[in-house]
Every structure is written in structure tokens, then in C-alpha cells.
TrEMBL record:
Highest taxon of source: Bacteria
Signal peptide: none
SUPFAM superfamilies noted in UniProt: ABC transporter transmembrane region, P-loop containing nucleoside triphosphate hydrolases
Gene Ontology molecular function, alphabetical: ABC-type transporter activity; ATP binding; ATP hydrolysis activity
InterPro entries: AAA+_ATPase, ABC1_TM_dom, ABC1_TM_sf, ABC_transporter-like_ATP-bd, P-loop_NTPase, Type_1_exporter
Name listed for the protein in its UniProt record: ABC transporter ATP-binding protein
UniProt domain ABC transporter: residue ranges: 370-631
Alphabetically ordered keywords of this record: ATP-binding, Cell membrane, Membrane, Nucleotide-binding, Transmembrane, Transmembrane helix, Transport
Compartment list: Cell membrane
Membrane spanning stretches: 37-57, 84-104, 154-175, 187-206, 274-295, 307-328
């Protein structure tokens, strides 16, 4: 838990390779998807500015009328008054029209942004579900969460705010400058003269803004990761009374985040000041140059007011551009981070045209034949499994044993195709796993992992999980079984079981029935986050029941009975033997007591298959297995 402000988990190398051109193409593809909404928004913006920028002309006209009336020796005051009132009415009508068009322009464009956010979030989440442990092992969960939540929101703002204000500025400037030029070309040039200088000066500030925005977003991810990790491991922190250190480290992270944010605020303030300067420099020029011309008599007061009206009207779009710069750069930095996840290609690929299908139970009497053909595997550089060849006949029960770290769980991960072998091939029913659609393979596998994972739902919902998948996913070829798993286990013989009976049956086989009787709510008992309210053994047995419910053709128990007492273990294994008749079971275990019941035992040592045979054969051979078995027996004798 103690870590520097940057996480020790480094993204895998392929994460950082989404080039700017590719990112622009992806951005464009989202924009293009909602081009209709953006186009409608642009039309409304045109209408807004067309109406709003017609106001200065009316104002100028009214002022000139009043000025003429005031200076003329005799004038028809009534007609001047009605002309001015008419101009005022037109101004009100224009302002109302511009207001309505402005509301529609915003709702249309923001709607497009929301659509993009919705799509991006869904696509990202779907993509995340395709990724393998290699990805999740290399990126902190808090960082992933931050990308899917905060960063996607920033991308929405990039589309909505940037499009709105950039298009608005372009339209406003086009109409405004055209009218200003028509009124007075030289005054327009005076107003625009300082702009190139200021824009040039802004370049370095904009670059600093982009860099600093990325730093702040990375720091935010760091903090999210730390909070997420520390809350998950709060018991460990308390057990070692390290709360104060963790609080101090979090404060340091927070202080750094604060500093970086202050830095960002400084850059933004500088940029905003420059933008406001640009926006107001025009007014200043009009006041100095224009006022002199009015006094000299070379410009009407009405023209002066109208010209000034355009300059003032252009101030807001200019100031808004300052905001756009911030949103734009924050959005681009966020999109870069989103793309790193979105474009991460899982190493385990779906088969293409050459995809095959597993034979059905009707086609084969016994199911679950597995063959490892010279399989080697490395997570990074150092090999974990080395040239393993073994055959597990369909319908057999085997065990994989070996010292800790010898590669047993890794073998399971390869069987479930979380990773592909670096060399060699794994075949199920004679089919290379790389040719099987992952969904099909996984729907046929029941894996009970070493560390049981329960969702914060009821026990019943946790158990039903596998069944839900079979019923929910139409693309899975195998349907949820309805026949009894063990003959005669429940009353009703050959009849089809209801879902409740199937769950009750799985609960009984997993020896969870007695525990449920003690829970007031039975299957409806909530288990808290990750199942905190259950004991280790209860959690393990819940995950066993979950795996059994899908009637898998291959059941893998990865040290899944480690927290269960030997008596219960024996009961579960006996029932499993009956249940898995005709199908394959693989037990990974550190306990040798129950191994006399399995058909074959494979012994791993430092990633190599060093022995295989039955319990009796291996004991007789006097190798590693016999040595481990003898040591365990001795330990048990000493403890009893
Ligand atoms: N995700 C991973 N990334 C890198 N190395 C890993 C990863 N998972 C496991 N390893 C390494 O692979 C080796 C084999 O681990 P594995 O979990 O397969 O052993 P095991 O035999 O199941 O051990 P145990 O009996 O203690 O569960 C270990 O050295 C471990 O550190």
C-alpha cells in the first residue's frame, strides 16, 4: 500500500500507442455519428447570431434619429419618437428570437455531446469486459474507473462546449466583422491589429495548459486508485496500525493534487486574462479612434454606436474561447487516456472464420477431454510453465499438485483462456482453444477460483449467476440443464427440476445447506461487498454451488476447499464424483488426503511436469509427491 505518488503498476507497453492522427480519426467518427444534431445546432447558432447582430444596427439607427432630432432646428418629434419606439420593438423582437434560437442551439449540441458520452461509456465498458487479467493486473482499478467516469465526461464537454463556442465564435466573427467592414474598414483594421500579437503570445500558455491538464488528470487517477485500494484493504491497514501513515501519504497525494490544480488554475487565469484583453482591446480602440472621428465629424454618432455594438457583441464569443481552450485541452488529454483503454487489444483473440464448436453431449458419451501439447507460458519474461504435455481423458477426475508457485493456478488460467500459451497448444475435445469462441469455452467450464469472489447481492443471486448467463446470452449454444444432476438426490426421479430445486441441489452438493438453515433469510441473505459477511469456507462453498449450477463439462476447483474442514471436504468430493459422472474434474490442492479418490495426479515443480500417476503409484515411486505427502502426514500427526 505504501507507494510513491505514481502507481507501481505500470501500464503494459501497448497501452500508450494511440497516435494523435488515430485519435483525431476516432474523435471524428463520433462527431460524424451525430452530424445531424451538430448541423442543426450550427443552424441555430447562425440564427442566434444573425438575430443578435442585427440589434446594433437598430440601436445605431435610433441613436442617430435622436441625435438628428436634438441638433435639428425644427423636427417632427412625434414621428422621431414613433421611429425610436419602432426600433426598440424590433430590438426586443430580435432579442427574444435570438434567445429562443440560443436555447435550441445549446440543447441540440449538448444533446449530441450526451449521446457521444453514452456511446463511449457503453463501448468502453463492453471493451473492458473483453479484456484479460493481463490488462487488469497492470492498471490500478481506480485508474480504470477514473478513465471510464471522469475522462468520458471531459470528452463529452470537449464535443459539446468546444463545438458550441468555436462555431459560435466563427459565425459571430464572420457576421460581425462583415458589418464592421461595411461601416468603417479602417476602424475595423485598428480593432483587429493587436489580435495576431496576442494570439502569438497565447501559444506557449496553451501548450502549458495541455501539459498541466494531463498532469492533473493523472494525479486524480492516482488518488482514486489509492482510495479504492486502501478502502479494500482497510482491515489490513488497521491490523498493522498503519492508519496514520496512510493518512499522511494520502494527505501528501492530496497536497500534490492541490498544487498541480493551483498551477493549472494559474495557467487558466493567465489565458483568461489574455482572452479578456483581446475581447476588450476592440472597445478601447473604438473609444479612442471612433470617438475622435465623431468629434471631428467624420463619423455619425449612430454609426459609432452601431460599430461599438458589434465590438461588444463579439466580446462574449471571444471570452468563451478562453474556456474552450481549457475544455479542449482537458478533453483531448482525457480522450487520449480513454483511447489507451478503448484501443487496447486483448492478447487472447476470438477465432475468425476457422471457429469450431465443441461436440454436444449427444455426440459424445463422455465429455471434457483435455490435452496439453508442449505448453510453455510466461507472464512477462520469466517462464512460469515449461514444456508441459499431459492428457486428461474425458470423464476422469484428476488432481494437479505441487509446491506453492509451481504454476498450478497459471495452468487453470490457460485452460480458461485468460491467457494463451507462449508455446504449444491446449485442446479440449481435440479442438485447439484458440479455435473456440471464448463464450462457448467458458460456458462449458466451471472454475472455482482460489480466492472466491462474491458480488454484494444475496447468496441466492450469487449462486444463480452462472445460470443467469446461460439464460441471458442467446449466443451460448448450450442451454441451462433442467434434469437432476444427481439421480435420486431429490424426490421426483426423472422429472425436470425447477430452478429452485436446481439451486437447492447445488447448495446441497456444495454442503452449504446447513449454513443456510442458520441464516434467518436463507438464500436471500445479503453478503455485503465481496461477501464480507460470510466465512472463508462459506464463500468458497457458495462459489462451488455457483459453478455446479451450470452443469459444466469441465469442473476446476483451484484450491477451492482450502478453507473447508476435512470432513466437509470429503462429503463435497463424494457428491461431486457422482455429479461429474461422465465429465471431467480437475482438483488443484495442497491436501493429499482426498487424492486416493482421483484417477490421476500430475505433479508440477517450478513449472515443469515432473511426475504423474495414481496416488499409490506416486507414493511407491518415492519422488516429490511421496516426499510432500509424507511431510504433510507428519505435520498432521504432530498437530493431532
Ligand atoms: N499475473 C501474474 N503476473 C506475473 N506473474 C505471475 C502472475 N500470476 C502468477 N505469477 C507468478 O507465476 C508463478 C506461478 O504462480 P501460480 O499462481 O500459478 O502458482 P501456484 O502453483 O498456483 O501457487 P499456489 O499453490 O501458491 O497457489 C509464481 O511465481 C507467480 O509469482
Amino acid at each position: 500500500m505504501s507507494q510513491s505518488s505514481s502507481s507501481p503498476l505500470r501500464p503494459p507497453p501497448e497501452l500508450a500507442t494511440v497516435c494523435a492522427r488515430e485519435r483525431r480519426a476516432i474523435l471524428w467518427s463520433y462527431f460524424w455519428r451525430y452530424r445531424g444534431l451538430f448541423a442543426a445546432g450550427a443552424v441555430f447558432l447562425l440564427l442566434t447570431n444573425g438575430l443578435a447582430l442585427a440589434i446594433p444596427a437598430q440601436l445605431g439607427h435610433a441613436v442617430q434619429l435622436m441625435r438628428d432630432a436634438a441638433t435639428a432646428e425644427s423636427s417632427d418629434l412625434l414621428s422621431v419618437r414613433s421611429e425610436v419606439v419602432r426600433a426598440a420593438m424590433i430590438i426586443i423582437a430580435l432579442a427574444i428570437g435570438a434567445g429562443i434560437a440560443r436555447v435550441y442551439s445549446r440543447t441540440t449540441i449538448f444533446n449530441a455531446g450526451r449521446h457521444i458520452e453514452f456511446d463511449l461509456r457503453n463501448e468502453l465498458y463492453t471493451h473492458l469486459t473483453r479484456l484479460t487479467p493481463r490488462f487488469f493486473g497492470s492498471m490500478p482499478t481506480g485508474d480504470i474507473t477514473s478513465r471510464v467516469t471522469n475522462d468520458v465526461t471531459y470528452v463529452r464537454l470537449l464535443f459539446a462546449i468546444a463545438f458550441l463556442h468555436i462555431v459560435n465564435a466563427v459565425v459571430a466573427y464572420t457576421i460581425g466583422i462583415q458589418r464592421m467592414v461595411a461601416l468603417d474598414l479602417s476602424l475595423t483594421l485598428w480593432c483587429l491589429a493587436p489580435l495576431p500579437l496576442l494570439l502569438f503570445g497565447m501559444r506557449s500558455v496553451i501548450h502549458a495548459l495541455f501539459t498541466q491538464t494531463k498532469v492533473v488528470q493523472a494525479e486524480l487517477s492516482n488518488m482514486s486508485s489509492r482510495v479504492q485500494e486502501n478502502l479494500s484493504g482497510v482491515d489490513v491497514i488497521k491490523a498493522y496500525t498503519l492508519q496514520d501513515r496512510e493518512i499522511a501519504e494520502y494527505r501528501a497525494l492530496n497536497a500534490n493534487f492541490y498544487e498541480q490544480n493551483v498551477g493549472l488554475a494559474r495557467i487558466r487565469a493567465m489565458l483568461n486574462a489574455m482572452i479578456v484583453l483581446i475581447a476588450n482591446v476592440g472597445t478601447l480602440v473604438v473609444l479612442i479612434v471612433g470617438a475622435r472621428r465623431v468629434i471631428e465629424g467624420s463619423m455619425d454618432l449612430g454609426t459609432f454606436v452601431e460599430f461599438n455594438g458589434y465590438v461588444v457583441a463579439l466580446a462574449f464569443p471571444t471570452i468563451a474561447l478562453g474556456w474552450v481552450f481549457a475544455v479542449w485541452h482537458r478533453g483531448l488529454a482525457a480522450f487520449e487516456r480513454v483511447c489507451e483503454v478503448r484501443n487496447y487489444e486483448p492478447r487472447v483473440k476470438e477465432p475468425g472464420e476457422d471457429a469450431l464448436t465443441l461436440p454436444t453431449a449427444e455426440e459424445r458419451e463422455r465429455l471434457g477431454a483435455i490435452e496439453l501439447d508442449s505448453v510453455s507460458f510466461a507472464y512477462e519474461d520469466s517462464p512460469v510453465l515449461k514444456d508441459i504435455s499431459l492428457t486428461i481423458p474425458a470423464g476422469s477426475t484428476v488432481a494437479i499438485v505441487g509446491k506453492t508457485g509451481s504454476g498450478k493456478s497459471t495452468l487453470v488460467k490457460l485452460l480458461a483462456r485468460h491467457y494463451d500459451p507462449t508455446e504449444g497448444a491446449i485442446r479440449v475435445e481435440g479442438i485447439d482453444l484458440r479455435q473456440l469462441p471464448q463464450r462457448q469455452l467458458r460456458s462449458e467450464l466451471g472454475v472455482v477460483p482460489q480466492e472466491p469472489f462474491l458480488f454484494s447481492m444475496t447468496i441466492g443471486q450469487n449462486i444463480r449467476f452462472g445460470l443467469d448467463a446461460l439464460q441471458f446470452d442467446e449466443s451460448l449454444t448450450r442451454r441451462a440443464p433442467t434434469a437432476a444432476l444427481i439421480e435420486g438426490l431429490l424426490e421426483g426421479g426423472e422429472r425436470e427440476l425447477t430452478q429452485e430445486e436446481r439451486i437447492a441441489q447445488a447448495v446441497e452438493i456444495a454442503a452449504l445447506d446447513a449454513d443456510l438453515e442458520n441464516f434467518e433469510q436463507g438464500l436471500d441473505t445479503l453478503v455485503g461487498e465481496r461477501g464480507v459477511t460470510l466465512s472463508g469456507g462459506q464463500k468458497q462453498r457458495t462459489t462451488i454451488a455457483r459453478a455446479l449450477l451450470t452443469d459444466p463439462r469441465i469442473l476446476i476447483l483451484d484450491d477451492a476447499l482450502a478453507s473447508v474442514d476435512t470432513q466437509t471436504e470429503r462429503r463435497i468430493l463424494d457428491q461431486l464424483k457422482a455429479l461429474m459422472y461422465g465429465r471431467t474434474s480437475i482438483h488443484i490442492t495442497h491436501r493429499f488426503n482426498a487424492l486416493s479418490r482421483v484417477d490421476r495426479i500430475f505433479v508440477l515443480d517450478e513449472g515443469r511436469l515432473v511426475e504423474e500417476g495414481t496416488h499409490a503409484e506416486l507414493c511407491q515411486r518415492g519422488g516429490l509427491y511421496a516426499e510432500m505427502y509424507a511431510r504433510q502426514k507428519l505435520r498432521e500427526q504432530l498437530e493431532s
